[in-house]
Design brief:
Strand content: 15-25%
Organism: Bombiscardovia nodaiensis
Protein name: Dihydrodipicolinate reductase
CATH class: Alpha Beta
CATH architecture: 3-Layer(aba) Sandwich
Number of strands: 10
Number of domains: 1
Pfam families: NAD_binding_10
Distance between the termini: 27 Å
Number of helices: 5
CATH superfamily: NAD(P)-binding Rossmann-like Domain
Strand order of the largest sheet: 3-2-1-4-5-6-10-8
Largest sheet: 8 strands, mixed
Structural class: alpha/beta
CATH topology: Rossmann fold
Length: 212
């Protein structure tokens, strides 16, 4: 049991709902922020569009998890505008912002000048989304007045994968486990996200999570 108060934005989505389930299972007080009827086990519900959220809406929470996702080509810019909106609402606030990020922006060299999305084998279908999410991260890095943490998953992010209860915490660079794999289930990613919500160990940092 913990006194942490968490809001999960876009809680009805696959990643958002996984985070809600994990957090509720640990006794965390969770509010699902959804546009329509809540489908998660969160104890509280705020029915409101992300773009209508205000600083007052988010003030009661210790942590806000941004699980927003847009995948249609014409909607991809909303990754930038939605993150900016949340960052603006949390500007100079004690509330931490944890962002469900992407793997495409992970660096592949020690100098941090090349990203996974720019490698020859990166799936071209995923490139537009990865590009806009990378730009979103760049903008987030400039927000020193926001207590943000950006959490990238492994390259293979498996929606229906099992909850093994294990994950590896890594940093800014693309990495693999001892089997040479970069993969993690939504359920195990949610464990890492909730661990970070509880600890607050990586403010103003991007971290990555991969499965053992």
């Amino acid at each position: 049991m913990t006194d942490l108060a968490m809001a999960v934005v876009a809680a009805n989505g696959k990643v958002g709902s996984a985070v809600v389930r994990e957090a509720v299972g640990r006794g965390i007080d969770v509010t699902a922020v959804v546009r329509h009827q809540n489908t998660t086990p969160a104890q509280h519900v705020l029915i409101k569009d992300l773009f209508d959220l205000t600083a007052a809406d988010l003030k009661p929470f210790d942590v806000v998890v941004d699980a927003f996702g847009a995948f249609k080509l014409e909607e991809l810019p909303e990754h930038m505008t939605s993150l900016k909106h949340l960052a603006d609402a949390l500007s100079y606030s004690k509330t931490r912002l944890l962002v469900v990020g992407g793997a495409g922006s992970l660096y592949i060299n020690p100098e941090h000048t090349q990203e996974l999305k720019d490698t020859p084998d990166f799936p071209q279908a995923a490139y537009p989304l990865s590009k806009i999410m990378s730009r979103s991260l760049e903008q987030l890095r400039l927000r020193e007045e926001v207590r943000w943490t950006y959490v990238s998953p492994a390259a293979n992010f498996v929606a229906d994968g099992p909850r093994t209860g294990k994950y590896l915490l890594r940093g800014e660079e693309y990495s693999t486990n001892e089997n040479g794999e970069s993969t993690i289930s939504y359920a195990d990613y949610a464990i890492g996200m909730v661990d970070e919500a509880v600890s607050g160990d990586h403010i103003h940092q991007r971290i990555s999570l991969i499965g053992e």
